[in-house]
Amino acid sequence: QKLGYKDMKATYKMNYEDNIVINYVRILDNISIYPEQIKVKIALDDGSITGLEGEKYLIAFDGERKIAQPKISKEEAAKAVSDRLKVNTVKLAVVPTETNQEVLCYEFAGSNHNSDYIVYVNAENGKTQKILKIINTPNGKLII
What we know:
Blueprint: E1 8-16, E2 19-28, E3 31-43, E4 49-53, H1 55-60, H2 74-78, E5 86-96, E6 102-112, E7 115-122, E8 128-137, E9 140-143
Parallel strand pairs: 3-5
Antiparallel strand pairs: 1-2, 2-3, 3-4, 5-6, 6-7, 7-8, 8-9
């Protein structure tokens, strides 16, 4: 916050030798804004900040951002998620597309056969937008 990054929440972290890298995303009205993210590299020995990656945040930040209401309900969006996924959490999120657009989605986080996944369902049309697999490593979580 001292650097002007407000309303940020830590989402993932990864250890690298003597440092930890923490991803933060902006939270607006309880909605995660993934295009507005930063990565902070912190030394484990003294807690000093040794790196900051804020390019995505600077490109995507919109201080006047207005988020439209979802056109479908959480229950309607859940129909696009496999019954095999044991859903742990559901929340709204703005996610980037491959063409650098932004889409409001329902984020379903859950597990299937000892693997963790995040499924993003478009909150406008109910179609699956993106599926990510989370791999737990000794150094933290890797998202693919």
